[in-house]
């Protein structure tokens, strides 16, 4: 009986240690995976940009610069599954931000017109991620990828379609979807947000395209509440399924060892 009790005790200790290991190890690994680094110097426009390095992840960048993960995702129009690509320029924040409104408070789309070469015109469309839902595009609200954009001239002179983008240029500016060398006329410009987004502004507008015009229109949409942002993954410190399974195996092994020892003790009597 003494041997039986001894082996049962050892088995129980092994099982308890395996459970503690499975619960604690992933969180500690995530906690010390990155060391905090100084935030990059803001540019002349106040934007703090960072060029992604090999091996960077969403949680790693957030830890590296002490930024809330959900805030980082909103700034760069990421979901939990968006890959982080080496060489990509991302936004970490804006210093001294003064929001520039491109949409009126009634959600009416306002066109910005600049001159282009005479004879034709150009229409550019940006479907932006209206993070705060106010129908006003701030500088830190960037494009949404995968939406549909279209321009159609009233008399049928031109009709084109394209896909909205979530890219930023070298200056950190959102890249719009542009339709170039359009014949002059009255155009209906429309967008359709991708699945999972809800419109926050009007999704179509009618404009007059004159010779040399380069017209840009901004349309807003906001990600739906069922997007799944904020769900913890194992790399973010959640409990790893593999570690939990390993803990269960060790628990069963400890119990089996104790039972086997008890049977052997009985057989020797």
Could you explain how this protein is built, in words?
It contains four helices and eleven strands. It has 269 residues and is of the alpha+beta class. A hairpin with a 5-residue loop joins strand 5 (148-153) and strand 6. Residues 27-34, 97-106 and 227-239 have low confidence and may be disordered.
Structural topology:
Layout: H1 2-31, E1 47-51, H2 58-64, H3 69-75, E2 89-94, E3 111-115, E4 121-129, E5 148-153, E6 159-163, E7 177-182, E8 185-192, E9 197-199, E10 204-209, E11 213-223, H4 241-268
Parallel strand pairs: 4-11
Antiparallel strand pairs: 1-2, 3-11, 4-7, 5-6, 5-8, 8-10, 9-11
Helix pairs in contact: 1-4
Descriptive terms for the model:
269 residues, alpha+beta, Immunoglobulin-like, 2 domains, 5-stranded mixed beta sheet, 4-stranded antiparallel beta sheet, 11 strands, elongated
């Amino acid at each position: 009986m003494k041997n039986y009790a001894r082996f049962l005790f050892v088995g129980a200790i092994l099982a308890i240690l395996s459970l503690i290991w499975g619960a604690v190890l992933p969180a500690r690994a995530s906690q010390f995976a990155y060391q905090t680094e100084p935030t990059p110097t803001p540019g002349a426009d106040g934007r703090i940009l960072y060029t992604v390095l090999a091996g960077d992840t969403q949680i790693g960048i957030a830890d590296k610069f002490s930024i809330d993960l959900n805030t980082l995702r909103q700034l760069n129009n990421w979901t939990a599954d968006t890959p982080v690509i080496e060489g990509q320029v991302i936004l970490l924040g804006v210093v001294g931000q003064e929001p520039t409104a491109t949409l009126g408070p009634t959600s009416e789309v306002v066109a910005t017109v600049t001159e282009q070469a005479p004879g034709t015109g150009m229409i550019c469309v940006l479907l932006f991620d209206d993070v705060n839902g106010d129908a006003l595009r701030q500088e830190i609200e960037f494009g949404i990828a995968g939406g549909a954009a279209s321009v159609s001239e009233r008399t049928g002179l031109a009709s084109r379609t394209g896909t909205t983008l979530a890219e930023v240029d070298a200056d950190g500016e959102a890249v719009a979807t542009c339709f170039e060398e359009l014949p002059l006329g009255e155009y209906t410009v429309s967008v359709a947000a991708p699945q999972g987004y809800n419109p926050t502004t009007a999704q179509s507008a009618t404009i007059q395209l004159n010779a040399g015009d380069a017209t840009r229109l901004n349309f807003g949409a906001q990600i739906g509440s069922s997007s799944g942002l904020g769900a913890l993954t194992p790399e973010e410190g959640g409990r790893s399924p593999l570690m939990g399974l390993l803990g269960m195996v060790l628990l069963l092994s400890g119990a089996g060892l104790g039972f086997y020892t008890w049977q052997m003790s009985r057989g020797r009597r």
